[in-house]
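Provenance and format

Records in this collection were gathered into a single text stream. Each protein contributes a sequence line and a token line. The two records reproduced below are adjacent in the stream.
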Amino acid sequence: MLPLAPRRPLWRRFGVLALTAALVLGGAYWWSRGRETAAVPALQTQPVTRGDIEQQVTALAVIEPKTYVDVGTQVSGLLRKIHVEIGDEVKKGLLLAEIDPTVYQTRVLGDQAQLDNLKAQLAQQNAQLDLDRLRNDRAQKLLASKAGSQDAADATSATVRIGEAKVDALKAQIKQTEATLDGDLANLGYTKIFAPMDGTVVSIDAREGGTLNANMTAPVILRVSDLDTMQVKAQVAEADIPKVKVGMEVYFTTLGMPDRRFTAKVVQILPTPETVNDVVLYSVLIDVPNTERLLMTSMSAQVFFRLGSASDVLVVPVSAVRPLSRGRKGEAKDEAIVRVLDNGAVKERRVRTGLANRTMIEVREGLKEGEQVVTTADLARTERRMPPPPPGIM
């Protein structure tokens, strides 16, 4: 038999176990201390302050003149002369352009000659009718005295009726020719194109010497716009359109003048939407005076619809407020939870909120000015910074 290995002394075995236990407990202690330090770092807080807040709906828009007319021509022909240039101020009735009137003058002259001919024929027929009536009167008298025949009396009577019919036919032809003459005179007048309104010539689409064909559609020669009043056409998303009302105050800025704020009111909400990239947008029309002529056609604008505003109220960052779940009994829609730093400890507090924008929210009850609130983003970063536990430690 092999000799048995000598046993270690009892005190040595207990020493190894004690050393192992000390190492494990020490590691757990230092891990827990590190976890506590990482779990509660120096939080970034923001104080409750007083200020002004405004709740808004924003939308992109295009600016166009509210009133404009595309001046075209109702007759075809050669564009002989354009009397204005782009940018000219025009008054209603001013001559803008002329079309070659030769063809229409010829038609008017032909109608006038035909009308004169018909009137001469009418005069001749009226004279013949007077003669036929005299002959008929004599024939009737001779028949009454039995000095004439019945056939002669009947013939003269028929001749009178035929003459009256010819007079009526000539009168009808004269009316028809007069109507044709009026139409050709109107077309002749259309060869001179006048300004339909006061305004500014903003575009000219035709050129002198070009031929205009008005048989299918009226060709546009130029556009006259009233630049004293512009219209902002804003595209509002369907989620926000219930908040927008006619008469609501708005303000907007343009791309070229971001520091200049223009104020106006909503005048109309068009009921038919447009779909752009699967997004339903409603057009909201806003009229704005433009006496300074700072706003120009097709400018881009960002519109802000004022849903509400408050002055000198308590406000906190939106990220510091956590709304309560809806529908619970006893909960109001404006109730929320805010984390407040109180003597180094984070405590939850129920508050009542008011107006809100993208960054700040009004607090009506539950907080005091100067208290420090913690944003939810800060707490999230705190949780992410907690180190994992070492193996074997729970």
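Adjacent record:
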Amino acid sequence: MTTTRRGAAVLTGVGRRRGIAAAIALGLAEDGWDLVLPTWTPYDRRLGIGGGADEVVAIAAAARDAGAAVTLVEADLAAVDAAETVFAAAAAADRLGPVRALVLSHSESVDSGILDTTVAAWDRHFAVNARAAWLLVKRFAEGLPDAPSTAVTGRIVALTSDHTAFNLPYGSSKGALDRLVRAAAVELGPRGIRANLVNPGPIDTGWMDDAIREACVAETPAGRLGTPSDTADLVRFLLSDAGGWISGQLLHSNGGFHVG
């Protein structure tokens, strides 16, 4: 059976096969989306928990096997011109449909608190997690029709977090992302663009130790950690025809983490 092509989705954050973005990429490929994957391998090397160019190539190959046209583009999202780089690569790509979706799964995430965060770390977190997100949303919307529409013309999904203490620049910049996406739902909604946030809760993509795993499971009524596929399933729904009436929401896909 041939899958109906849905256009292209720009998906940030693909770097590791264990990562959430990798699961989203493969799920969207199966659903008929072509993919533009901005990557930045120096970040994966800096974190030291896997990833890199070989894994990105493998993820792209698996998405192509699922029927997607895939374009890889190296882009440091801390750079002011990164959004233009990404969308120029999309425009130049062969076999790629029009960009109809933007999924923001990237982040700068280096732990620090009020007393030990540096100005440089603060600025980079906000450049990557907030400013780059704004510029990508802006460039995405500029590529869609600007006339009023009651039909769904485009979709934005951003992955967020409720981290605060001891992860100050990350949590603060994710808070800015939340406001940005909700603003997009209001400002761009009359043009047919749906914008939502997904908080995946604790998912072990290589950063947890045993103590963190045990603590997170203990606070999750569902009795297990989330998986990248759990998050990908919700993103796939939001990008599906069935998800077209949902907008302006922050959705928790976390097995009940911290509910009690």
